Hints:
Blueprint: H1 2-71, H2 77-127, H3 130-153
Helix pairs in contact: 1-2, 2-3
Amino acid sequence: MMMTMTMVIKVRMTTMMTLMDDEIAAAVVVVVVVVVVVIVVVVAVVAVVVVVVVVVAVVVVVAEVVVVQLVVVEVVKVVVVVEVVVVVVVCVVVVVIVVVVEVVIVVVVVVAQVVVVVVVDVVVLNTQASSFHECRAILTTLLILQIQPWCQRQGIWLP
């Protein structure tokens, strides 16, 4: 009778530990996914702000050139030429900044998703839960679907 009771207690404790491991693993996955979503949203907001600032700066510089051309038509042509050169330089700098920001956004999103896949992989290896295998498969598929169009635009073809 005592041996049976001890065995039942051991089995229940093992089952509870497995359930706790699964719950901890699920909590880790949820936290990582939430962190990735927050990072992506913050990066997107920063990108929008940068684009708005760039557009406003270009509009201001172009308006300034137009005003200078209207006011000083024949008096100081050198000033107008300098202003046009400044506008061209500002536009080139703005384009470079926007391209760099877009590349940084893509890199951050890809790295964040790879981190999620790796964390889920570690959790799966530790818990051996089939639902996490499904979760990992879904995240890997999403990662490939998001990377593939960008890679194709760069001339890189994924299988």
